[in-house]
Design brief:
The complex is a heterodimer of chains A (255) and B (784).
Chain A: E1 3-15, E2 21-33, E3 37-41, H1 48-55, E4 63-68, E5 71-72, H2 78-88, E6 89-93, H3 104-113, H4 120-133, H5 149-161, E7 167-171, H6 179-194, E8 198-202, H7 206-209, E9 214-219, E10 222-228, H8 236-252
Parallel strand pairs in A: 3-8, 3-9, 6-7, 7-8
Antiparallel strand pairs in A: 1-2, 1-4, 4-5, 9-10
Helix pairs in contact in A: 3-4, 3-5, 5-6
Chain B: H1 2-12, H2 14-52, E1 57-61, H3 67-76, E2 81-92, E3 97-99, E4 103-104, E5 111-115, E6 124-125, E7 138-142, H4 143-148, E8 156-161, E9 164-176, E10 186-191, H5 193-201, E11 206-215, H6 221-230, E12 239-241, H7 243-295, H8 300-333, H9 335-340, H10 349-353, H11 356-378, H12 381-385, H13 410-421, H14 423-451, E13 466-471, H15 476-489, E14 493-507, E15 513-521, E16 530-533, E17 541-545, H16 546-549, E18 561-566, E19 569-579, E20 589-591, E21 602-611, H17 617-627, E22 631-635, H18 636-643, H19 645-680, H20 682-691, H21 695-734, H22 747-769, H23 779-783
Parallel strand pairs in B: 5-10, 7-9, 15-20, 17-19
Antiparallel strand pairs in B: 1-11, 1-12, 2-5, 2-11, 3-4, 3-8, 6-9, 7-10, 8-9, 13-21, 13-22, 14-15, 14-18, 14-21, 16-19, 17-20, 18-19
Classes of the chains: A alpha/beta (255), B alpha+beta (784).
The structure holds adenosine-5'-triphosphate (ATP) and magnesium ion.
Magnesium ion (MG) is lined by residues 48-49, 171, 202 of chain A.
Chain lengths: 255, 784
C-alpha cells in the first residue's frame, strides 16, 4: 500500500506579538495510506485542526516535510497548492462554508467549472448524480437559506467530491449537526471511502470516530496514541462494540 | 477615554480614516476659499466703487448735442441727480494703434476710445485705486489690453490715423469700473488733456459722448432714464444703468466661486459616503461588540458617542487645517481680482466669513454620521450576537445561474454577477464613478460649447464663416454701400447678408417709452435657432431676445404685440419668435427690413457671410480688413472667443481642475473601496481558495466586478451630463440671456477619450489594489 500523505517531524509555530511564539504542532510524524479512513480526536486546543490544515497544505508548516502522493508540498507555490486542492483534495467544514448568492447546485458545480476545459454538460450531470446520491436532488435549485444544516453539509460533501479528489479532509463536519444528520453524513462518508477515496476527519464524537478505521489521539500538539480498527461493516452491533473500545482506549490515554 | 477609543479606531482603520479626513479637509479648504473670495469680492468691489464713483446712468451718443439742454435737465431733476458730466471720447480703430514690433490692435472686437480723466465722477483708476493723472506723452492702458497684448509699463504705443501720428509711453494700467470687463464692448485709454486736444485738432478719431449722471441715494434711475428719453435729449446709443457694471465686474470671480462651492459640496458628499462605507464594512466586525455593550447595559447613546466622537474629532481637526490653509490657497484664485478690482485684498471680512465653511462641514458630517448610526438602534442585543443578520436577503428568484454563462470565463462571470447580487454594496462606487465622469465631461462639454462655431446661436447671430462689423463713423453709410457692392461681385463669397442695428423707442409694459436696439435684415440667409417661434419674415414682424421677452423686460410672448416708434411714427409689430442672446446685456431684437432704419440712431452694420469652398478665410479676412479701415473683420469663432475670452480661459482651468479632481477622487475611492470590500469578503475569499481557486482567479473576479461598475458609472455619468448637465448650465446661463443651452459634445472626447482615460487610470488602480493575500495560513479565516 502507498501512502497518500507522509508527514515527517512537522512543526507549526505561530507568532503572537513581537517575541511571543506558540508552538502548536510538535514534531509530528504521520502516514496515511491511500483509501484509509482516519479520524483525529483530542481535547480542545490540542492542535487537531492545525494538524489537518498543515498536512493538507492549506496552512504552511514551520519546519519538517509533508509529502502528498509522494510529492513534497511544504515549499510549493500558492498556485501549485491551489491546483492540488482543486484536483486532488476536497474540504468539508463544521460551518459548511458554502458561497452565498449561489444556488445549491451551483455551489457544487463551481469548483469543476474553474478548469478552463470544463465540460459544462458533464459537470451538470455529475453534480446532479452527487445530489441524488446524497438524497437532496430536489433542493438543487434552492438558495442556501432554504435548506437545513444537514442538507447543507451534504451539499458541502458534493462540492468536495465534484472533481473526484483522492482525499477528503473534514474539520468536525458533523460538529454542528444533530445525531440523525450526523449518522447520515457519516454513512455518506463511509460510502465514499468504500469507493476508494481517502478520508481524514477531526471529531469530538466517539460515534463518528467509531465509523473510521484509525483514530489518532492528540494532546498538546503531539499524537500520543493511535488505534487501528477493522473497517466499518455497516452492522449496528459492530458500531456499539467499537464505540465502547474507543471510549476505553481514550480513558486509558487520560481523556 | 473617548480619545483613546478614537485613537485605537484610527490605528485599526488607518487608510480609511486618513482618506475621510483628507476629503473633509479639502471640502473645508475649498469652501473656506470660496467664502474668502466672496468676502474679498464684496469688500474690494465696494472700495473700488467708492474710489471710482461710477455713474448711475450712462447715455452713449454720437453726433451733435447741446450741453445746455442737458444742464437744464439736470437742474430740473435735482431731486434725483447730484452731478452730471459729459465725457468726450475719441474712437480710434484698433488697426490704428501700433505696439511692439509691427503689431496693431486690429484683431480686437472692443471699441477703443481715448479720453481725459473726468472731473467730478466716473474716475478711471490706477492699480492702487488712485485717480489716474496722466502726464503729456503718456497713456494709461486698460487692464484688458495690458493682459491681451502682454504690454508693460514703460513700453510704447503709437496712434496713427490719417495725418495724425503720436507715440505714447505707457505709464499706468487703467482700472475702469465701467468698462473693465471683456463683456463690456468698449475700453477707455486715458491721456493728458493737451494730447487729447491735439488729437481732436487732427481729427484722429470719431467723436462720441458719454452723458453721465450721478444720482443721490434715493434717486430713481428708471424714472430719470424715462424722463430723459421723454425730454428728447440726445441718445442714439444705449442707455446703461449702473448695476450692470457691478454685475460684469463680479461675473468672472463669481463664476469661480460657484464652481469651487460646487466641488466643495461634492467633497462633503463623498466624505459622507466614505463614512457610510466604513461603517457598512465594519459593522459586521463591530456587531458583536455592539451587542455585548448593549447586553451589559451601556446605553445606545453612549455607544453611538463612541463612534460619533471619532468623526467629531476628525471634523474639528480637518476644519482647523482647512480653514488655515484656505488663506494660502485663495491666492491662486485671486489673480484676476487683484488686477481688475483691487490690488490689496486686506479686508477683515474674510476671516469671519470663511469660518462659515468649517462650521457648515462639521455640522453636515456629524449630522450624517448620526443618521447612519441610527442603525445601531435596530440591533438588538440578541440579534447582534447572532451574526449574519445583515446578509439575509429575501427569497428572490435565482438569477444568473452558472450554466447560463456562455461568454465569460467563470471568474469574470462570478465577478459580474456579484455586482448584480450585491448592488447595494457597489452602488457607492457606481455613484462615485458617475460623478467623476460628470465633473470631467460637463466642463469639457461647456468648454467645447463656448468654443464652437455653433455658440454664435447664443449670441443672437446665425452660423456663418465670417462677419464684418462697421461701427459708427461719418462714412458708415457709404462704406456699407461700397461693401455690399463688392461682396455681390466677389465670387469667393458664397452668400452674405447685411444687418443694420439702430436704436428705436419701444413702449414698455407700463406704457412708458424705453430704448431698444433692433437689427433689421434678411434673417433667412443665416438662420438662427429659435427658442420659440421663428424669425421675422414679413412686414410688421419682430423677434425678441430671451431677456427682452422676459418678465422683467417687455414681458411678451410669441403672438403678442410690440409698439415701436420709428421716425416719430408708431408701428405695431407682432412677435414671431424668441431667441437667445448673451451679447449687449442680453437685450436685442430683430425685425424685417420693412421696419425701416432709424437713420439718426444707427448703431452698427453687420455683414455675415459664408465663403465658397476652398477659400482661405485668413486671406479673405485680411483683404476686407485692409479695404475697409473702420471695419472689424472676424471669423465667428474668433468673435465668440474674444467676447467670452475670460470665461473661456477660466473654463479651460476648470476643465483641467475637473479632470484632476475626478482622477484623484476615482483613484482614492476605488482603492479604499477595494480594500474594504476585500477585507469584508475575507471569509468568501478563503472558501474559494480552499476549493482550489488561486488568488489570481479571485483577483480576476473582483477586477471584473469593479470594472463593470466603472463602465456602468461612466455610461450613467455621460448620460447625466447630457441631460442634467444641460439643465444646470441653462439655469446658470439664463441670467445672462440664454435660456436653453445645448451642450456640444464632441463624440470622440465624450464617449471615447474621457471614458478611456478614466478606465485606464481606475483600471490600473484596481489591478494594483485588488490584492488577495497569498501566503497567509488559510485556516486563520475559518477559525475566526
Ligand atoms: N493562527 C493562530 N494564531 C494563534 N493561535 C493559534 C492559531 N492557530 C491555532 N492557534 C492556537 O493553537 C491551539 C490549537 O488550535 P487548534 O484549532 O488546532 O485546536 P483544536 O484541537 O482544533 O481545538 P478545537 O477542538 O477547539 O477545535 C489553540 O490553542 C489555538 O488557540
Ligand atoms: Mg478545531
Amino acid at each position: 500500500m502507498t501512502n497518500i500523505i507522509e508527514a515527517l517531524s512537522v512543526n507549526k509555530k505561530v507568532k503572537l506579538g513581537k517575541d511571543n511564539e506558540l508552538h502548536i504542532l510538535k514534531n509530528i510524524n504521520l502516514e496515511i495510506e491511500e483509501g484509509e479512513f482516519v479520524s483525529v480526536m483530542g481535547p480542545s486546543g490540542s492542535g487537531k485542526s492545525t494538524l489537518l490544515y498543515n498536512v493538507s497544505g492549506m496552512d504552511r508548516i514551520t519546519s519538517g516535510s509533508v509529502k502528498f502522493k509522494g510529492r513534497e508540498i511544504g515549499g510549493l507555490k500558492e498556485e501549485e497548492l491551489a491546483k492540488i486542492r482543486l484536483k486532488n483534495m476536497g474540504f468539508i467544514f463544521q460551518d459548511i462554508n458554502l458561497l452565498k448568492n449561489l444556488s445549491l447546485i451551483d455551489n457544487v458545480m463551481f469548483p469543476a467549472l474553474v478548469s478552463k476545459d470544463a465540460d459544462k454538460k458533464a459537470v451538470h450531470q455529475k453534480a446532479k448524480k452527487l445530489l441524488e446520491m446524497t438524497g437532496i436532488e430536489m433542493l438543487a435549485d434552492h438558495n442556501i437559506t432554504q435548506a437545513s444544516g444537514g442538507q447543507l453539509q451534504r451539499v458541502g460533501i458534493c462540492r468536495a467530491l465534484i472533481n473526484n479528489p483522492d482525499i477528503i479532509f473534514g474539520d468536525e463536519p458533523t460538529g454542528a449537526l444533530d445525531s440523525k444528520s450526523t449518522k447520515e453524513i457519516m454513512s455518506i462518508l463511509a460510502e465514499i471511502n468504500k469507493k476508494g477515496t481517502t478520508v481524514m476527519i477531526v471529531t469530538h464524537d466517539v460515534k463518528v470516530a467509531a465509523k473510521t478505521e484509525r483514530v489518532l489521539y492528540m494532546v498538546d500538539g503531539n499524537i500520543v496514541a493511535q488505534k487501528k480498527m477493522r473497517k466499518y461493516n455497516g452492522h449496528p452491533d459492530d458500531i456499539k462494540e467499537k464505540e465502547e473500545s474507543i471510549m476505553k482506549w481514550l480513558a486509558e490515554n487520560g481523556f | 477615554m473617548f480619545l483613546k477609543i478614537v485613537k485605537n479606531d484610527f490605528y485599526r482603520k488607518k487608510i480609511t480614516t486618513v482618506t475621510v479626513f483628507v476629503f473633509i479637509t479639502m471640502a473645508v479648504l475649498l469652501g473656506a476659499s470660496a467664502t474668502n473670495i466672496v468676502a474679498n469680492l464684496i469688500q474690494s468691489m465696494s472700495e473700488l466703487q467708492e474710489r471710482a464713483v461710477p455713474a448711475d446712468i450712462t447715455v452713449m451718443h454720437a453726433g451733435e448735442y447741446d450741453q445746455a439742454e442737458i444742464d437744464q435737465f439736470a437742474e430740473k431733476y435735482r431731486d434725483h441727480i447730484v452731478m452730471q458730466e459729459t465725457m468726450d471720447l475719441q474712437n480710434i480703430d484698433g488697426s490704428n494703434i501700433h505696439f511692439g514690433q509691427n503689431q496693431t490692435m486690429a484683431g480686437t472686437i472692443q471699441d477703443i476710445s481715448f479720453v481725459v480723466q473726468n472731473k467730478k465722477f466716473d474716475f478711471i483708476l490706477d492699480l492702487d485705486n488712485e485717480k489716474l493723472e496722466v502726464k503729456e506723452g503718456k497713456v494709461a492702458v486698460p487692464i484688458y489690453f495690458m493682459e491681451q497684448y502682454d504690454l508693460k509699463i514703460g513700453e510704447t504705443i503709437t496712434v496713427k490715423s490719417g495725418g495724425y501720428e503720436k507715440e505714447f509711453v505707457i505709464s499706468d494700467y487703467a482700472r475702469d469700473f465701467e468698462m473693465n470687463s471683456s463683456l463690456t464692448s468698449s475700453k477707455r485709454f486715458v491721456i493728458n488733456q493737451n494730447d487729447y486736444d491735439e488729437m481732436l485738432e487732427m481729427q484722429a478719431g470719431e467723436l462720441e459722448y458719454l452723458i453721465e449722471f450721478k444720482l443721490n441715494e434715493n434717486g430713481d434711475s428708471q424714472a430719470v432714464q424715462a424722463a430723459y428719453i421723454k425730454a428728447g435729449l440726445p441718445a442714439n446709443g444705449p442707455i446703461v444703468g449702473g448695476t450692470i457694471f457691478l454685475l460684469f465686474n463680479a461675473m468672472s470671480d463669481a463664476t469661480v466661486v460657484m464652481v469651487i462651492i460646487l466641488i466643495s459640496i461634492l467633497l462633503i458628499i463623498i466624505a459622507s459616503l466614505c463614512i457610510r462605507l466604513t461603517f457598512l464594512a465594519t459593522i459586521d466586525e463591530d456587531l458583536r461588540e455592539i451587542g455585548v455593550m448593549k447586553a451589559i447595559g451601556i446605553s445606545k447613546k453612549d455607544i453611538k458617542n463612541v463612534y460619533l466622537n471619532k468623526y467629531r474629532v476628525m471634523s474639528v481637526a480637518a476644519g482647523i487645517i482647512g480653514y488655515l490653509l484656505s488663506f494660502v490657497l485663495v491666492n491662486l484664485f485671486n489673480g484676476n481680482m487683484r488686477l481688475y478690482i483691487s490690488s490689496e485684498l486686506s479686508g477683515n471680512l474674510k476671516y469671519l466669513l470663511s469660518f462659515i465653511a468649517p462650521l457648515f462641514v462639521y455640522f453636515m458630517i456629524v449630522m450624517y454620521s448620526k443618521k447612519i448610526l441610527k442603525r445601531i438602534d435596530k440591533i438588538s442585543a440578541v440579534e447582534a450576537l447572532r451574526s449574519d443578520i445583515m446578509e439575509h436577503g429575501k427569497n428572490r428568484k435565482y438569477s444568473f445561474p452558472l450554466l447560463k454563462n456562455k461568454f465569460f470565463s467563470i471568474n469574470i462571470y462570478m465577478g459580474l454577477r456579484d455586482v448584480w447580487k450585491r448592488f447595494k454594496l457597489y452602488r457607492l462606487l457606481f455613484f462615485i464613478f458617475a460623478v467623476c465622469t460628470f465633473i470631467v465631461i460637463l466642463p469639457l462639454n461647456m468648454y467645447n460649447t463656448v468654443n464652437s462655431a455653433g455658440f454664435s446661436t447664443y449670441m443672437g447671430i446665425g452660423k456663418s464663416d465670417m462677419r464684418i462689423d462697421l461701427r459708427r463713423t461719418d462714412s458708415i453709410t457709404e462704406d456699407n454701400k461700397k461693401l455690399q457692392e463688392e461682396l455681390k461681385n466677389d465670387s469667393d463669397i458664397e452668400k452674405y447678408a447685411a444687418y443694420i442695428t439702430s436704436s428705436y423707442q419701444v413702449k414698455n409694459a407700463d406704457g412708458s417709452w424705453d430704448y431698444i436696439n433692433i437689427e433689421i435684415g434678411d434673417f433667412s440667409v443665416f438662420p438662427l435657432k429659435y427658442l420659440e417661434g421663428r424669425a421675422p419674415e414679413g412686414e410688421g414682424e419682430i423677434s425678441l431676445s430671451f431677456a427682452n421677452a422676459a418678465k422683467h423686460g417687455l414681458n411678451k410672448k410669441v403672438g403678442d404685440e410690440v409698439t415701436v416708434r420709428v421716425g416719430g411714427e408708431e408701428q405695431i409689430l407682432s412677435v414671431t419668435g424668441i431667441y437667445q442672446d448673451i451679447t449687449n446685456g442680453g437685450k436685442t431684437a430683430k425685425a424685417h427690413t420693412s421696419l425701416g432704419v432709424n437713420e439718426e440712431a444707427v448703431l452698427w452694420y453687420i455683414v455675415s457671410m459664408d465663403l465658397a469652398p476652398g477659400v482661405n478665410i485668413r486671406e479673405k479676412m485680411d483683404y476686407y480688413q485692409n479695404a475697409y479701415d473702420s471695419a472689424q473683420v472676424n471669423d465667428i469663432k474668433e468673435y465668440t472667443g474674444q467676447t467670452l475670452g475670460n470665461i473661456i480661459n477660466q473654463m479651460s482651468l476648470i476643465v483641467i481642475g475637473g479632470i484632476a479632481i475626478a482622477v484623484i477622487i476615482a483613484v482614492l475611492i476605488t482603492a479604499l473601496f477595494l480594500k474594504m470590500l476585500l477585507s469584508k469578503d475575507m471569509p468568501r475569499i478563503a472558501i474559494m481558495r480552499s476549493m482550489g481557486l488561486t488568488s489570481k482567479n479571485i483577483k480576476h473576479q473582483y477586477m471584473a466586478g469593479t470594472l463593470l461598475v466603472l463602465i456602468l458609472g461612466i455610461i450613467f455619468g455621460v448620460l447625466a451630463t447630457n441631460y442634467l448637465g444641460e439643465f444646470l448650465v441653462s439655469i446658470a446661463m439664463s441670467t445672462m440671456g440664454a435660456a436653453k443651452i445645448e451642450l456640444v459634445n464632441i463624440a470622440w472626447q465624450t464617449w471615447l477619450l474621457c471614458p478611456l482615460a478614466l478606465i485606464v487610470v481606475v483600471g490600473y488602480t484596481i489591478s494594483v489594489c485588488c490584492k488577495v493575500t497569498e501566503d497567509d495560513d488559510l485556516s486563520v479565516t475559518f477559525r475566526s
